[in-house]
Amino acid sequence: MRFVLLLAILLTSAPPAKGGVEEVHYPTPFDGRPRHIWVRTPAVPADTANLLVAFDALDFLGEIPLPAMLDSLERAGRIPPTVAVLVDDSTGVTRQKDLANRKAFADWLCDGVVLWVRAHYKVARDPHRAATCGTSAGGLAAAFIAFERPDVFGNAVSLSGAFWRNAEAKGSPPWEWLTGQVAASPRKDVRFVLDVGEKETTGVLGGTGPSILAANRRLRDALKAKGYDLVYVEAKGGTHSPESWTLRLPPALAAVNRQPPRSAAARP
Asked: What is the mean pLDDT of residues 232-243?
């Protein structure tokens, strides 16, 4: 009896399981610049894990604690065990060259980084079990890369996505290039989760471009018109800030993993 009581005490007092996080060496640069990449492994064991690729790694390792969120969601059974790959995209112009509708970056990620991760970690190959994730320009990249490469990523999670942007990192009109591509293309086998704050109403570039909220609404409408698997949220009181994204990201991650999962037979 004493042994049973002691075991119960030990189990209930043990710290929650945590996934590991390590910086890894990925040998192939993009645009001539090596990239810092971190990999978070699951807190819950799995034969094969889902794959999540997140942009702006330093934000997700700091102000928006993605690894801890994944730990909690896995323990609660709200998401499957997940390997998360966090890519450092720097700042300023360099960041936009990665994240603003760049086909070359999408291919570098899908044909290089993802293949490397698959060779070193037990992750599923099924696109339905792979997702992109980001905020602001990273949210744009998440949606664009899944749209561009549904053979690799079947899910995208975007918070406050900068969908006002033109193609190939251009900061000039015509605006909302990705929305136009969605409207002009056949539906692809991608599930989108778009979350935008209701207070993101200021036009970009000093008011010369659309607001984040307006651009997200138009992308929502284009996706709905094409029959996409879509979760769209306008967060009450939501702003364009890490503090707001920290509150909004866990339900968005749960939403992209919601049941029922899609099968190959459901693909268009």
From this structure: 98
In CATH terms, the fold of domain 16-256 is Rossmann fold (3.40.50)
Q: Record the pTM.
A: 0.90
Task: Place 262 in a pLDDT band, splitting at 50, 70 and 90.
Answer: low
Cβ atoms 87, 39 nearer than 8 A: no
Lowest mean pLDDT among 89-98, 169-178, 225-234: 89-98
**Domain map of the chain by residue range?**
16-256
